[in-house]
């Protein structure tokens, strides 16, 4: 999920590459003769896939075909995509995958009490959160008008035809990488891939029989500096935070995570939220929603999702970790709390 508003695309590419190198702690494939690693730029971020398998090259190439297919269908910035056509026409028969991801998004909206909502696009456009360096602070009157179109109940279906009401527009950026990661994971499992690492611009999925140690980026540190390490296996690790993608105006920072009820940047007392689970798309949605909700309300909704683990970092450097997650704090400036 991350667009770096304060960086040029060239700098973004370089800095994400550094992140890919530094954020993974202790990842080294056990048979380098069958290991293939490839990096591309898609979904407005750097994507890296490493596969350790006798058919690694074929699997990696098929994985990037999947990425290209879904970027062409899901992007709100490509005029020919299903999403762009739907946003313009408000009534469009979409592909099976677009139908599925929109249906999933509505389910996540229901589970998060509307704090994850793909109909936020009109508000996002006001803030100019579109991958450029030109953020702006909209007037309250502009926000109030745009909020009239926000709400997942503005989406309805007539078979595979999606209907948008009240001038709503959708943006799948909050879960597109997660959906795509799930599809690549399924491809690898169907082909009995023995070990792989998928990094969709920070949405990480690890596949294989052994565990991986994943370092979590310190919100206050330099890129690649982590405050803790999760030990995981066959799962996804997704982080939302406001420390990378923001712009400044009149001495105040404005970040990219927008509260769908206020139309303004979410300030909930959190620095970052990491969600861990098998379903990368779901992790995507819940990391955003919990960040907006804040610690207490966020933990409350996560209690209803037993398939998800979490690491929540507050503004005062307290780290709240779900009790079943294997996690080690590595920065003495933070204080660890295990949550039952």
Low-confidence stretches: 1-32
What's the pLDDT, averaged over the residues?
89
What spatial form do the alpha-carbon principal axes imply?
Answer: globular
- Main sheet specs: 9 strands, mixed
User: Helix segment count?
Assistant: 9
Order of helices and strands: HEEEHHEHHHEEHEEEEEEEEHHEEEE
Q: CATH topology of the largest domain, anyone?
A: T-fold
Percent in strands: 25-35%
How many runs of DSSP E, i.e. beta strands?
18
Quick one: CATH class of the largest domain? Alpha Beta
Supply the CATH superfamily name of the largest domain.
ApbE-like domains
Strand order within the widest beta sheet = 2-3-7-8-11-14-15-16-18
- State the domain count: 2
**Structural class by sheet pairing and helices:** alpha+beta
Question: How widely separated are the two ends?
Answer: 28 Å
Helix content: 25-40%
The appropriate CATH architecture of the largest domain is Roll
Radius of gyration: 19 Å
Structure description:
This protein is of the alpha+beta class and 340 residues long. 32% of the residues lie in helices and 28% in strands. A nine-stranded mixed sheet has the order 2-3-7-8-11-14-15-16-18, sandwiched between helices. A four-stranded antiparallel sheet has the order 1-9-10-17. It has a three-stranded antiparallel sheet with strand order 4-6-5, covered by helices on one side.
């Amino acid at each position: 999920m991350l667009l770096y508003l304060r960086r040029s695309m060239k700098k973004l590419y370089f800095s994400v590459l550094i992140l890919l190198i530094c954020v993974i702690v202790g990842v080294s494939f056990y048979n380098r003769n069958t290991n293939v690693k490839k990096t591309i730029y898609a979904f407005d971020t750097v994507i890296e896939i490493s596969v350790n398998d006798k058919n690694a090259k074929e699997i990696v190439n098929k994985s990037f075909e999947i990425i290209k297919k879904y970027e062409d269908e899901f992007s709100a910035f490509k005029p020919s995509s299903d999403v762009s056509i739907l946003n313009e026409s408000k009534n469009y028969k979409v592909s099976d995958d677009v139908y599925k991801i929109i249906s999933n998004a509505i389910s996540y909206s229901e589970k998060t009490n509307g704090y994850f909502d793909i109909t936020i696009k009109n508000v996002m456009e006001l803030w100019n959160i579109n991958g450029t360096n030109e953020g702006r602070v909209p007037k309250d009157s502009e926000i109030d008008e745009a909020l009239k179109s926000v709400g997942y109940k503005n989406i309805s279906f007539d078979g595979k035809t999606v209907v948008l009401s009240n001038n709503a527009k959708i943006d799948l950026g909050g879960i597109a990488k997660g959906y795509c990661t799930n599809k690549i994971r399924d491809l690898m499992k169907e082909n009995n891939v023995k070990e792989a690492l998928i990094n969709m611009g920070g949405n990480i999925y690890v596949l294989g029989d052994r565990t991986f140690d994943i370092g979590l980026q310190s919100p206050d540190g330099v890129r690649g500096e982590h405050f803790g390490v999760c030990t995981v296996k066959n799962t996804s690790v997704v982080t939302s935070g406001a420390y990378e993608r923001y712009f400044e105006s009149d001495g105040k920072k404005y970040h990219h995570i927008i509260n769908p009820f206020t139309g303004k940047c979410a300030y909930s007392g959190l620095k970052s939220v990491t969600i861990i689970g098998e379903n990368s798309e779901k992790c995507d949605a819940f990391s955003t929603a919990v960040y907006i909700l804040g610690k207490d309300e966020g933990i409350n909704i996560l209690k209803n999702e037993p398939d998800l683990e979490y690491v929540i970092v507050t503004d005062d450097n307290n780290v709240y970790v779900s009790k079943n997650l294997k996690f080690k704090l590595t920065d003495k400036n933070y204080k660890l709390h295990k949550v039952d």
